[in-house]
Design a protein that fits this description.
There is one protein chain. It contains two helices and 29 strands. It is mainly beta and 385 residues long. The chain folds into three domains: 157 residues, no CATH class; 80 residues, Beta Barrel (Thrombin, subunit H), CATH 2.40.10; 129 residues, YVTN repeat-like/Quinoprotein amine dehydrogenase (Methylamine Dehydrogenase, Chain H), CATH 2.130.10. A five-stranded mixed sheet has the order 5-1-29-28-27. Strands 2-3-4-6 form a four-stranded antiparallel sheet, with no helix packed on it.
Length: 385
Amino acid sequence: MNLRKLASTKETFNGLINDSIDKENALHASLVRENSQNGYVYPALGSPIKSRDSQPLKDHLYNVGTSFNWCDNGSTFITVSEDHGIRTYITSQTLIDDDNSQLIPYLRIFKSTPIISSALYPDSSLYSGSCSMLISQKDVPLRLQSLIPNEDNEYPIIQSYQIQDRQTEIFQKVNSMSFLDGARFITGSNKFISSFDTQRSEAIASIPSKSGIVSALTNAKSEFANDGFYSGSFSGKLTFYSNDLEPIEQTKVQNGNGITQIIESSNGKYLYVISRNSSHVEVLDIRMGLKQVAKLTGLVTLNQRITGDLLPQSQGLIIGSNDGKLLVYKDAELGMDCEPEFVTLNDCIPISSVVVNPSESQVLGLIKGDRSDEYQQVSLQKLTF
């Protein structure tokens, strides 16, 4: 396997938060000047929010990326970072064909406080004129916000959702969320699992979470499972719920310190469960009531959220590691213990997120770095077998 870097934020995210924003602004200004002669007008990049209600940026920290989302057509991707920023990048064919290009956001907005979790709306695309994201922040309602500016260069809030503790009326912190389809989504908080209609501010239904903080939610698409979703918690419990929030099956993952991601295998027979502080990925058999049947070994994770993705055409699972390796488990779908093939990046920087482009399956989106490392990066890499 070979890996080739196509593009990255190498000139912007390699430093403290305020420094990275300043570098990004300078590169964007240069891009605007270079293209002004062609008559193309780039949207202005948003600035950090400074108000009485905003939380100041921790400018002594590095700008860690927290999530990477491809739009369904693969032409655009959206990242969330610890500077409270949401950035939209366009992946042109030129960028994919070149080596080591500099990534500069096309759009950038900031929220007033840290973003706890997010989920991209299904079928979002800049080219269709509809691109929005569910955004969770502390002490405010959950919001569905457009990521495309209107004529006043504002990013409208499409809908707000009330997730409150009825006894205290305090807004619940949403730690995980997932769209069931374009009309419904589910959320997991410290105390509740809730189901929402995107058009209504109140939950359709809510149930107490008896497993603690809900840290991962994934739709069930397998033919071996009824319509529903999987919920994982920081206590290590994994539960399969119907779409009506009825618990159907539950198991306890013994490995690690809290579930960070649940992935259905391409053949629909297994779940891959990724946890913090873990040495392997648990493999559960959906057909056997979520029984653990195998381990994918060779993983190195610390107290950090690690996420992976499925490779196309049943080529297995790919995941990053804290020692800067990409791990490919080609035989993951066999439901047997297996070791990975390694692709080592030269810099040995921790890889917290790997996401496969839905239309260019050889192109990977990576988030690299952690809070102790100044060399943060969002990058695009091309993987060939």
